[in-house]
């Protein structure tokens, strides 16, 4: 049973510059005040955490809807892990992954592709070696994942270690070539960047349509890599910014299973106008970069001691706020963002 909790009388000391979006109200403040986030802060990344059912998806939807209502400066892409956003986002463009297929083998970026497979499929050094040798050999014309599978099936073994590693590599790659995935991983050219640029409304990519979470993770990682690389290479979102919502972020930014290229880009990507909203149930499972590189933090109710400890340490939370976090009601959260002197407890508004 929830104990009776006395919320502290809150002093709201804020100094914002530029445009802001309102996401709710400060609870128990001396005078009624809106809980706001500076629009410019969004490219400095946002972390939204909380136990299941605490209100994360709802809060992210409010941020997106308010942002789109307030300014046309941002494009929005939601990578929807569980397919929860469609009904919550105003005027969203909804896409299944097979309508946004990815060209996963890019010859000018082959080592990055191998690294990404290494992280997402858990490849061993011999398996990485085999992939490098295959791609370095001009004899093989590999344009898609099916060509790669063919080469792996037919390449001559150079000893027993090679055979063993080749076969287990084949077992890891084969799920990507299953029926129904051809449209997802076999694009001649990626359409995602052009689509983001022409689309006026928030885009939701419903990753949950890829049923196997192992393959979903690979799709999401490759999608993020494409967006980040494009931002760095062409500075496409330097003026028109892009907000990317990454649900269930521990799947690609998990402490023990992160995708290296995505984690590394967290600190860099803001310079190129891309802001991430990292959403997860468990902050303690996330790589340190996710805590360090997020300027805005929204913490819904958290029950686990490990998670509480990570949050308290990174925000220097005062004890009277820290001890309330496990008992916050659905939709209530601790907000800390640039422009606020100290974290405040808020009630996120209804949709
Ligand atoms: N601020 C709010 N005002 C009113 N209702 C809310 C608010 N926040 C969340 N809810 C309701 O609480 C329920 C759970 O919210 P939500 O799905 O956002 O939680 P969650 O943390 O994303 O859960 P999960 O981790 O399971 O996806 C939903 O029915 C939602 O409509």
From TrEMBL:
It comes from the Archaea. Residues 21-227 form the Helicase HerA central domain. Coiled coil: none annotated. SUPFAM superfamilies: P-loop containing nucleoside triphosphate hydrolases. It catalyses: ATP + H2O = ADP + phosphate + H(+); Couples ATP hydrolysis with the unwinding of duplex DNA by translocating in the 3'-5' direction. Belongs to the HerA family. This is Helicase HerA central domain-containing protein. It comes from Staphylothermus hellenicus (strain DSM 12710 / JCM 10830 / BK20S6-10-b1 / P8).
